[in-house]
Each structure stands twice: as structure tokens, then as C-alpha cells.
Design brief:
The complex is a heterodimer. By secondary structure, chain A is mostly helical. Chain A contains nine helices and no strands. By secondary structure, chain B is an alpha/beta fold. Chain B has a domain of 225 residues: Rossmann fold. In chain B, the strands form four sheets. Chain B has an eight-stranded mixed sheet, sandwiched between helices. Chain B has a two-stranded antiparallel ribbon with strand order 4-5. The chains are: A mainly alpha, B alpha/beta.
Chain lengths: 304, 387
């Protein structure tokens, strides 16, 4: 039974192959004779002999060459062995596509897996939160996440002609991110006394109400609040935490500025304008020259 | 026990009255702000008698000269010397002129990027020395009086230690010399940050960042309360004029040359070398024991920028036998601008300097007798030793 179905399939393939061969031959005959059937423009509209130059002649030549190549290919394909090979090749195309697709998908799934693992690690950082210090810890956690998970991408070694420029640009972006993070924390620190002064103010008003010392003058409440706020700020500004945050912000600002300036020098190098770096070199020379001249003038005065 | 009554009705009445008051205040304020206001500062007539690079020297001449020795005033590099001549009635310069004293004042100018390499040594042994020599030559004097304000006072201390032969009397006001204290926020911050790196990064230390830093010393008062006070008194022309003058001065800040700023933070704030007589300028040690001339040292009890602890060690560390500390009940700026201190501060200095003018042998005399030039120096040393 199986043998019979195989034989039937083979017979079907052979019939299809013969049909394809006949179609191919007839198509090539048709297209190959088309240019010969077209009337000669020069003969129809012009009594001068046919010109062997010009765009229409070149187009004719190109068409002739094309049809000859197609004819040769068709003749080759009409050979049974060649036709078999072609059909086998077309059978392998889907397999080829499937293999490529599988590799692409596998690569994507692996990348997705690493992203998920990273997200899990980010989730683990959240366990370090203490609810009371939720806001302050947030900045530290975000910075930690950035430095451990994302920062490394900016320091992937660059390759190619523009590698140094790319490295400096990446560094500038990284330093900017770090500076923004430090600045946010610094600014947040100045919000904290505002937040903390309100409950204190509310307690004081509550005490005043209980003692019957409520005033109808809003200025008194303002003075009270500003004093409480001032006290909170003094406490904050003297704290080592504030000094640390301020130090970190200044450090990140300095690093960002330096990295940004390096990147700007690369851009400005292509423009016909002097940069700060160029001017600083000149200023240094001027300064040293002036100092030398003053020193020598002073020595001359002393010798007089 | 009866419940405490919150006088809601009174509060609401009060609010309604306040709204009326506010409306009238706003109307009056707009007349004041849109009218002519006298807000110019530093109006006392003066003459620019010396200039070197960005540095100028202003000369203020009194109507009648009663002091033999002129005074050179050295302001800080932060903010401007115009604070000493803020307005009529609040002008230290005018008080000096009224006492008959000739006053020279250094205007440090506005440092540009090209000034970033100028060091403390360039300011002290460069500009200041040249200016003092100029004044000495102009008045034919061996020595002049020197007065410093804040960082300018620190420069004066350094100069007097390196060139005691040129200074007759030294006055320091709100001058930080001892930086090893945690009483002032600046002292805490400068020790714990790398602020000195900002100068080279920006070229010079930017004035805007310094101004922001000063505002952050007391944000509640300097950013909120100050302007609430302004809005409450906007309808008062005198108040607005005084306020605007002060605003003009306080935000008129030059950058600080990067090299100077870096050395000041590192050698003074962090290492505290000045009070220990270990500070070096261009290889020369600033030995406070060489300050042998009379010293008058002012500072403010409520000064949050330069606390008393940063100022009151100086008189104990100098070699002078005639030194005095005066602590005024005021803050950093109040010494110069508060009406109460106007009566104490400048008159005290004038009187103190007058008492110590002494007999001055001039260079002119020494020139007449060139062979005895060395004897002139010996005689001068004797006078100094007596003082």
C-alpha cells in the first residue's frame, strides 16, 4: 500500500515536472521573439538608415541580452536533472528559514530570561526598605540599581574609528545620570524639614487650643512656623548625613562637568572657534610671563 | 469642665480686616515700586588712584585731614567692598571720613577666566604689596594702617606677618583665622566636601554657586522669611530702598579665582595652617609671631559665617603686645550696616588708630641722610619694640 502511494506520488511529480518544462519553453519562445516582432521606429517614421546609437538602441540591446540570458537559463532548467535539483533546493528553503527563525527566537528568549533575572535582583533590593525611611532609602536604592545593573552598558568597550568619541559621550551620559540622582536626593533633603515642621506645628496649635491660648492673628502662627522650620533646617544642615549628600552632589557635579566638557571639546574641534581648553593654555602662559616680569621688575627696583 | 472656645468668629473678622489692609498695602506698594527709588550704593565720592590688572584702588579724601596715617581697607574676594558704603547714614567709609581719616579701599574687580591661576600669594605679596608701596610712596610714609574684612582680613594678617615693616596698625574685622571649629556651618561643610574642586572645573569658583551656598546656610530666613518681610513692608518707601540696596550688594558677587579658592579651602579650612603659623605663600612661612604692630580684632557674637571661635584666637597667637578683641552683639554684616553698630564700630577704629599714630620718621628724612639709612631702620625697630 505504501509502495503504491509512493509510486503514485512519483508519477505525479514527473507529470508536474514535464508540465513545468513545457511551460518554461513556451514562455521563453514568446518573450524571446517579442523584440523581433516590434516594428523598427526608424523604418516607420524615418527614411534614414537605422542608427546604431542613442537611448532606444541601448534599451533594445539590454532587452536582447536579458532575453538571451533568460533563454539560456530556461534551456538549462528544462533539462530533467537540473529541474530536479531546483525543486529539491526549493524544498530546503522552508527548512533553512525554520532553522534561522529558531536561532533568533532562542536568542530572544535567552535575553528575556536575563532581563527577568535582573528584575528579580531589583526586587530583592526592595527588601532593604524600611518603611519609615522609605523616601530617603529610595534614592540610595535607585542609585544602587543604576550602578549595578545599568551603568555597565555605558562602559562597554567601543570599537571602530570613533571609539574614543563614543567612549567620552557614553561617559558624559553616565555622569549626567549620576549627577541627576545626587541632585534629586539633595533637593529632597530640603523638602524634609518642610514635611517635618507641619506635624510639630499641628501639635503646638493643639496645645494652644487645649490651653485656650488661641490667637486670631495669623502672623503669630507664621512666626511660630518659621521658627520651627528654621530649627529643623539647622538640625539638618549640621547633620553628617547632609554633609555626605552635599559632598556627593558636589563630586558628581564636578565629574559631570568634566565629562561633558570633554565631549564638547570633541564637537567644537570641528568648528573654527577656540575652546576654553585652548584659552586656558594661553592664560597660563600669560600668567607665568606676567609673574616673571613682575619679579624681574622688583629685582631691578631693589638694585636701584 | 467647659470646652475651650476657638474664636472662629474673631479669626474670620481678623481675616476680613487683613484682606482690606492687604488691598490698601498693594495699592500703596505699586505706587512705591513704580515711583522713583533711591537705590544706588557706594555713592561717596572717590577717585581711582591705582590699577593693576582687574584690581583698582579707590581713594576717599576727607574734608579735613586729621589723621597722619592713611588707612588701606582690604575687602574679601567674596561679594563687593560696596557694603562699606551702602547708603548715607550706613556708611563705614563716611564715618571714617568724618573723623578726618584718608581711606584707600581695594576693589578686587570681577575675575575672569584668565584670572583662574592667581593665587593667594599673588593677591597678598603681589597686588597688596604693590598697592601698599604705592600708598607709602604717595604719602612719604614708612608704614600705613591696614584694615581687613572677612577673607580680606585673613589676607591682611598674612601680609602683616610677611611685611611687618610696612604696617603701622592692623585692624581685623570678622576675620577667620582659626578654622578648626564646628560652630559655623561653612566650617563643617568645607571640611567634609571637595568644594575646592569646583574652582578648576568651572575655571573660577562661580559666584552663583557661592550665593546659593550662602542662602542654604539658613533657608528658612534667607529664602522665605526675608521676602515675606519685604511683601509686608512693600508700601514703605524707605524700607524698599534699603531692602533693594542690600539685595543689590548681596547678589553682586564676583567669581573667586580657582587657585585662590582651592588654596584657601585646603590650607585654611581643611588644614587650619594660618593660626598655627604653618601657612606658606610661595615658600615663605606666615609666622603670626611676626605681627608685632598693634592689633584690633572685631567679631560678631551672632555671626553664623565666621563664628567668634574662628576669630578670637588671633590676638593670642600674634607677637604684638598691644592687641584687643571686641565682640559686638551682631552678625556678620550687621557690624557694618546696622545703625546701632555704626555708632560703635567706625568711631572706635578711628579713635584707636589716632591713639597709635605716634611719631613717624618718614622715608623723606631717611633720604636726606642716606649714610644713616641703617640707623633709620634701627630707630624704627626701637619704636616698634616700644609699641
Amino acid at each position: 500500500m505504501e509502495q503504491q502511494s509512493d509510486q503514485n506520488q512519483e508519477k505525479e511529480t514527473m507529470d508536474m515536472t514535464k508540465m513545468f518544462e513545457m511551460w518554461l519553453k513556451s514562455a521563453m519562445n514568446f518573450w524571446g521573439n517579442m523584440p523581433r516582432m516590434q516594428p523598427d521606429e526608424n523604418m516607420m517614421f524615418n527614411f534614414f538608415p537605422k542608427q546604431q546609437k542613442g537611448s532606444s538602441y541601448q534599451a533594445q540591446q539590454t532587452w536582447d541580452r536579458g532575453t538571451k540570458i533568460a533563454g539560456a537559463l530556461a534551456a538549462m532548467l528544462s533539462e530533467p536533472e537540473n529541474l530536479d535539483a531546483m525543486f529539491k533546493a526549493t524544498d530546503t528553503v522552508p527548512e533553512f528559514i525554520m532553522k534561522i527563525s529558531r536561532q533568533v527566537w532562542e536568542g530572544y528568549f535567552e535575553a528575556q530570561k536575563s532581563w527577568t533575572e535582573r528584575a528579580v535582583r531589583i526586587g530583592k533590593h526592595e527588601k532593604a526598605y524600611s518603611f519609615d525611611d522609605l523616601d530617603q532609602e529610595t534614592f540610595k536604592t535607585l542609585q544602587d540599581i543604576y550602578e549595578k545593573e545599568f551603568q555597565r552598558y555605558f562602559y562597554i568597550p567601543q570599537i571602530g574609528l570613533t571609539r574614543f568619541y563614543q567612549e567620552r559621550a557614553n561617559k558624559a551620559v553616565d555622569k549626567y545620570n549620576l549627577f541627576q540622582s545626587s541632585l534629586s536626593e539633595f533637593i529632597y533633603m530640603f523638602y524634609v524639614p518642610m514635611e517635618k515642621s507641619m506635624p510639630v506645628m499641628q501639635e503646638k496649635i493643639k496645645d494652644m487650643v487645649e490651653k485656650g491660648e488661641i490667637s486670631d492673628n495669623y502672623k503669630e502662627y507664621y512666626s511660630m512656623w518659621i521658627k520651627i522650620l528654621e530649627g529643623h533646617y539647622m538640625k539638618l544642615l549640621q547633620s553628617p548625613e547632609y554633609s555626605q549628600v552635599m559632598a556627593k552632589t558636589i563630586q558628581s557635579l564636578v565629574e559631570y562637568r568634566s565629562a561633558r566638557d570633554e565631549m564638547m571639546y570633541d564637537i567644537l574641534k570641528n568648528l573654527p572657534i577656540p575652546t576654553n581648553r585652548d584659552m586656558d593654555e594661553l592664560y597660563k602662559e600669560f600668567y607665568e610671563l606676567k609673574k616673571k616680569v613682575r619679579e624681574l621688575s622688583r629685582k631691578m627696583e631693589e638694585q636701584k | 469642665m467647659s470646652q475651650t472656645k476657638i474664636p472662629v468668629d474673631l479669626i474670620l473678622n481678623r481675616l476680613a480686616e487683613s484682606t482690606e489692609e492687604v488691598k490698601e498695602k498693594v495699592q500703596k506698594a505699586s505706587e512705591v515700586l513704580l515711583g522713583s527709588l533711591e537705590t544706588d550704593i557706594s555713592q561717596t565720592p572717590n577717585e581711582i588712584v591705582y590699577q593693576e590688572d582687574r584690581v583698582k584702588v579707590k581713594y576717599y579724601k576727607p574734608e579735613k585731614i586729621k589723621h597722619k596715617i592713611p588707612l588701606l581697607v582690604v575687602y574679601a574676594l567674596i561679594n563687593r567692598e560696596t557694603m562699606l558704603d551702602l547708603q548715607p547714614g550706613r556708611s563705614v567709609i563716611q564715618n571714617f571720613l568724618e573723623s578726618g581719616m584718608e581711606v584707600y579701599m581695594i576693589d578686587w574687580g570681577y575675575p575672569k577666566r584668565k584670572d583662574q591661576f592667581v593665587t593667594i600669594d599673588d593677591h597678598v605679596n603681589g597686588y597688596m604689596d604693590n598697592i601698599i608701596d604705592f600708598i607709602r610712596k604717595k604719602h612719604d610714609l614708612a608704614k600705613i594702617n591696614l584694615m581687613g574684612i572677612c577673607m580680606g582680613g585673613s589676607f591682611c594678617v598674612m601680609y602683616s606677618a610677611l611685611h611687618p615693616e610696612k604696617i603701622k596698625n592692623l585692624v581685623t574685622t570678622v576675620t577667620p583665622t582659626n578654622f578648626d571649629t564646628d560652630k559655623g556651618l561653612l566650617h563643617i561643610w568645607m571640611k567634609n566636601t571637595l568644594a575646592e574642586k569646583m574652582g578648576p572645573t568651572y575655571g573660577n569658583m562661580p559666584a552663583d554657586i557661592m550665593n546659593l551656598g550662602f542662602l542654604l546656610l539658613n533657608p528658612a530666613r534667607l529664602i522665605i522669611d526675608k521676602y515675606v518681610g519685604f511683601f509686608e513692608n512693600m508700601d514703605n518707601k524707605k524700607f524698599v530702598e534699603n531692602f533693594v540696596r542690600m539685595e543689590k550688594w548681596i547678589f553682586d558677587s564676583p567669581d573667586v579665582p580657582a587657585a585662590t579658592f582651592k588654596q584657601f579651602i585646603e590650607d585654611c579650612y581643611k588644614k587650619n595652617l594660618l593660626i598655627q603659623s604653618k601657612l606658606e605663600l610661595n615658600g615663605k612661612r606666615v609666622d603670626l609671631k611676626k605681627i608685632t604692630m598693634p592689633l584690633l580684632n572685631f567679631y560678631g557674637k551672632y555671626d553664623h559665617l565666621v563664628p567668634p571661635e574662628a576669630c578670637n584666637l588671633l590676638t593670642k597667637m600674634v607677637g604684638s603686645q598691644d592687641s584687643e578683641d571686641i565682640c559686638l552683639d551682631t552678625g556678620h554684616i550687621g557690624i557694618y550696616v546696622s545703625s546701632k553698630c555704626q555708632k560703635e564700630f567706625a568711631p572706635k577704629i578711628s579713635k584707636w588708630l589716632k591713639e597709635r599714630e605716634g611719631d613717624e620718621i618718614t622715608e623723606a628724612v631717611a633720604k636726606i641722610q642716606p649714610l644713616k639709612k641703617n640707623s633709620f631702620k634701627k630707630y624704627q625697630k626701637k619704636i616698634d619694640a616700644k609699641q
